[in-house]
Amino acid sequence: MVPFLKQVAQDIQHRFGNDLSDIAIVFNNKRPITYLKKHLADTYAQAIWSPQFFTIQEFFGLSSNGEQVSQLTQFFYLFDLHNELLAKEGLAPESLEEFYPIAEIILSDFGQLDYDLVPIDHIYMELYDTSRIDIEFQHLTAEQQEFIRQFWQSFHMAGHTGVQQRFLKLWKRLPTLYKNFKAKLEALRQTNFPTIYRNLVDGKIDNPDFLLPYKKILFVGFNALNKAEAQLFQRWQEEERALFYFDTDTYYLDDIQQEAGLFIRRNISQTGLVNALGDSPDIIGKRKDTVHLYASTGKVSQTKLLHKVLTDHEKEGKSAAILLADETLLVPLLQSLPELKVNITTGFPLTQSPIFGVLNLWMDVHETISHLKKSKLPYQYLETFLNNPMTRVSVADKKVNQDFINEKQLFEIDVQDIDVKSSALPHFFKPLTESKEVVSTLIHILDNLLIALAQDTQIKQIDANLLIETKKVLNQLQLGFSKIPQLSVLFQIGLIRKAIVSINSAIEGDPLDGIQIMGLLESRCLNFDHIYILGANEGILPKTSAGITFLPNNLRRAYGLPILENQDALTAYLFYRHFQYSSQIHIFYNGIVDENSTGEESRFIRQLEFESQIQFQKQQQQQPIQFPPVASELVIPKTGAIWEKMYRTFIQGGRRISATALTTYLASPLQFFLKHIAEIKEPPSISQEFEMNRLGTVIHEVMEKILQPYKGIEAFTSTSVLKDKIETVDILVQQEIAAQYHIEVQSLGDFNSLQRIMHKIATEYVKMYIQYDVDNYQSFRIVELENDEDYIMDFPIQINDKTETVTLYGIIDRVDQVVTDLGEVKTRIVDYKTGADMVKFSTIEKVFAPNTENKALVQTLFYAYVFEQVTGHRNLEPHLYVARKMREEGTLFYGSYGALMEGEFLAQQKEEFVNFLTSTLEEIFNPEVPFQHNPDAHIYPSDPYTLFYRNVSESVEP
C-alpha cells in the first residue's frame, strides 16, 4: 500500500507541476513535514521550488502581530484580574494559593470555548432555577435544553449550599473575567492561540491579507476539527483557497458505528470538506494478515518482550516505529532496546533525570526546615544528596558524612551538622532567610549544575536542554511571584512541582533512518512498514478520564464541546490507521491485573478481532509461578519502579556491592532487597547486639594501631616484637572504647557495666590474635591494613543479554606475608571475626550455594579476589581469625575431608568462586527472578527484618 504522504506528494505533482513556491502545506504538528519533503523529492526526482510548510498554529499565527504569552504568565494575569473583580463586589481578595487550583481549569475552559466559538455570556449565565431555561436558551434545540435541565436539577432539588453559591457566583463572574483577560492581552499587544482562532473567524486580525501570498493552501492529515477550524476551512474551500487531504479507510468511514471515523465523517458530510485524494480505499476490511499480540507479565516486561521481538523481526531496509500508547514506558524502553539505530521524538522527561532528583530533594528539604520549621532532617535526605551524581560530592566528603551518621546511628541529622564542602551545591541545606528566596535559590542551583556539567569533557545535550527549559519556567514563576507580597514556601514549592513536572528534552536523531520512537498522537500522517505498539491496555488505549473542567458533561454536550467520547474517537482513529499500511504489526499489553492495570487488551483490538478478518496471534509471556508456603509470604518482583531503581542505582549510578551485600543475598534475597534496594535501614538500637557490633570495630581499630608501624616496611620483622605489644592492649582497648562512645575516661571505673564487659572481651581477643602470630610464625611484613577505600573494581555481568558492569567493593582488614617455622613464605588475607564463624566447611558445593554454609569463606574469597585484581598480587590464602577456635583449628579454611585452602586446591576454588560470583550477581539482576526469603536460612532473634519473612520460616516443615 502506498503510504498516505506519498499519495499526497503524487497528487501535488499532478495538480501543481514543478513550481510549488506559492503553495502552503499545513500539518497538525512538525513531524510529518520531514517525511513529505522526502516523498516530494522521490516523486519529482529533480530540483523544484519547494512549497512552504507550517504547523496549523504557525500558519494561523501569521494573522497576528501579538506576542505569544506563556501559560504561567496568563495565570498571573488571571489572578490579578480576578481579585480586581472581587474588590468591585466588595469581597476579600483570594490568595494565590486559593486561586491556583481553579485558574488552570478556567484557562483551559476559556481556550476550549474560543476554539469552539461558544458564546461566553450564554454558557456562563447564572441559572438558579431550571424554569428559566426555556427563556434564556430559546436558541437551543429541545435536546440541548434537556441536557442543561438535567445538570441544574441537582442544584435546584436541595437549595444552594455555600459551596454551590460560591460556584454560581464564580460562574456569573467568569464572562467579565474572560472579557477583561482578553482586553489585557490586547492592551499589552499579546495573544494566545485560542484568541487567534476566534479572531480569525470573527475577522478581527492584524494581517487580513496573510493568505494572499499563497496560490493554494493544503491542509494535510487533519481529523478532529474544532468549530473555528471547521468554519475557516469551509470558508477557504468555498473561496477556492484550500485543499484538504484526509487519510481514510472505508472500513471505519462508511460504518457510522465505527468511532474511528467520527470526525472525518463530520468533516466530509457536515462541514462539506472534499478529500483531494478522492474516494477512500478499502484496506482494513480486506486484510487477512496476522497481527502479533503479546501479553506481558508486568508493565515494564513489555519492553523486555519487545527486545526479543525486535531482535527476531527487525530487518534493514524496512521503516519501523515504536508507538507508546503508555508514554511512561519510555525510560524502561530505552534501557531495554537492542543495539539498533533509533530516533526518539517523544522527549526525555525531566522527572526521570538526576536533575529532577536534585530539585525534588531540595524542595523536600526546605518543606521540612523552612515550612515545618524543623531543625533536623531524615538522614535519607543527606544520603540521597551524597549519592546523586549531579551533586558531585567527593569520595572523601561522602565518607565523612556517612561515617558521621553511622557512628552515631542518626536517623535524623541536625542541619547545622551537615557539612558538604566538595559538592557542586555547597549551600544546598542552608535554611532560607525568607520565603521569596525559593525560586531564586532553585535558579542558582540550576546555574551551579550547568557549570558543573560544563566541566565534563562532553556535556550531555539532554541534561543541558533540561536545565535550560527548567530555568525558563522558574524565571517565569519568579516574575509572577515578584508582584505578590507574601507567598508561603509550601505553596511556591507546590506550584514549582506542577510547573516543572511536564518538562521534556527532545532527543534528536534522524527521523528518516532507524526505528522511530514516538507517542501515538505523534504518529499522525506517518506510515511505517513495521509497527510496535506498547501499553495497549484497556484504560490506557483509550484513556478513561478527560481533563478537569468547570463545564459539566451535559452542558458540554449542549454546546457541542468535546467530551470523553470524542477523545475515544480520536484515539481509535490514530490506532486504526496503522492497520491501513503496515505490513507487520506487533502489539504489547500488560496482562497482569493490579491496582494500575486491568490486565486486558484495548477494546479496539477486540473490536478488530470480532469485526474484521485480521488474525490476531496471541502470545502470553511465561515465567515460573510462585507458590508461597503461606499467603503472607512476601515476594518482590523486579518490575516497574523496583527494576528502574536497581538499574539506575547499581548499573548507571555505580553503587558498590560489598561482600556483606553478597552474603546477605545468599542468605535471603528478600533481605538484600530490603537493605539495598528499598533501603529500609535497621532501626537504631541500644541492645547487647548493638554493643557486640561495636566490639568488632574496637578490635579492628586496636589491631590496626598495633600493626600500623610495620606497614610498608619491605624487610620481614620478627614476630618477637609483637610480644611487647601485648602489654599495651589493655590501654589501647580502653582508649578505643572511649573514642567509640565519645567519652573521656581515666580508668575502667568510668565505663558502664556493658562497656567493661566489652573491654574484657576485646582485650582477650586481641591478645589471642597477637599470641597466635607469635606462636606460629617466625617473621612477618604488612602489605595492607584496614583499607576500606582503595579496593573498587568494575565487574562485567550479563543483564537481559547485554553486558553491563557492576562495582565490587572490598574492605581489606589485613594482607600480610609470613614466614612459617618451616621457612615457607605465605601471602595471606586475614579477616577478624568475633561471632560464631568458623574456618571449617563440609563441601565447597555447600559454600558456593544459596544460604551458604560458610559466609566468612565467601566474604574472604571476595576480598581476596578484589585485592588481587586491583593490585596484581596473586596466591593470597584466605585466613580467618576467630578467637574462640583459632587455637584448636587454626586460621586457614579447610574442608571436612581435610583439603586446605592452599596451593592448587585454592587456585581451583578461586576460579570456581569467580563463576559463582558471576552467576549470583546475574541472578540478582535477572528481572525474571523475584526477591523472596530463603526459607532454609537461619533467622536470628535480633534480625530487624524478621517481620518481613517470619511466616515463611514458621511454615517450613522440620
From TrEMBL:
Gene3D superfamilies: 3.90.320.10, P-loop containing nucleotide triphosphate hydrolases (3.40.50.300)
One Pfam assignment: PDDEXK_1
Domain PD-(D/E)XK endonuclease-like positions: 656-935
Coiled coil location: none
Matches recorded under InterPro entries: P-loop_NTPase, PDDEXK-like_dom_sf, PDDEXK_AddAB-type, Restrct_endonuc-II-like
Top-level taxon of the source organism: Bacteria
Protein name in UniProt: PD-(D/E)XK nuclease superfamily protein
Species classification: Bacteria, Pseudomonadati, Bacteroidota, Sphingobacteriia, Sphingobacteriales
